[in-house]
Amino acid sequence: MNALGAQPQSGVQWYYEQYAEALADRYEGLSFEALYEEVLRCLPAPPARAADIGAGSGRDAAALARMGFRVTAVEPVREMREIAARLHPEDVVWLADALPELRGVEGAFELLLLSAVWMHLDQDERPVAMARLSELLTEGGRLVVTLRHGQPPRDRRMFDVSAGETVALAAECGLRLVHRGGGEDRLGRGDVHWSQLVFEKPGERKA
């Protein structure tokens, strides 16, 4: 849901610290079920272990917990974690950590969710991050990535990363594409559209 904030991402993290309350209001105005309608069928069955990377206000992490997943929410911005604690009483483990390394996150997970996060990583960070995500997935695990497309805003660090590049990078890290979709911006921004990608780590999914 938002940028991650390791030292190379500090410019992004500042934005989310400054505007945490307003951004949380925006995120909470969109439902998990509506945003991910086309990929819900791709998710593993609960009680699989899931991680929401860049969890923001906790909307998606809480929704996954209500569905029966065992959820870890990763969010480096303290202000966002505090808002999430206030808004969502669901049983979620919260971690302060950041892409590309995610050094404090321990796998393995059957589901990884990155919503509106990937576009904050630069060309050098994305291969490191994808390799780490692949490491964190179990065999048969799924990675869900949403990508923002359009002119990047000037008030934070962001890149217009293509779906094609992301699919190719995932393949290099041993992940195969199982779904590609997306559509218009749910906030009504005409110059923004989104891709939704679901990848799977080959191997037999553990029961």
TrEMBL record:
Q: Where does the Methyltransferase type domain start and stop, copy by copy?
A: 52-145
Keyword Electron transport: yes or no?
no
Q: Does the record's keyword annotation contain Methyltransferase?
A: yes
Name a Pfam family for this protein: Methyltransf_11
Entry superkingdom: Bacteria
GO biological process assignments: methylation
User: Which GO molecular function annotations are given, in alphabetical order?
Assistant: S-adenosylmethionine-dependent methyltransferase activity
InterPro entries, alphabetized: Methyltransf_11, SAM-dependent_MTases_sf
Query: What does the UniProt keyword field contain?
Result: Methyltransferase, S-adenosyl-L-methionine, Transferase
Give the protein name, as stated in the record: Class I SAM-dependent methyltransferase
**Mind giving the lineage of the organism this protein is from?**
Bacteria, Bacillati, Actinomycetota, Actinomycetes, Kitasatosporales
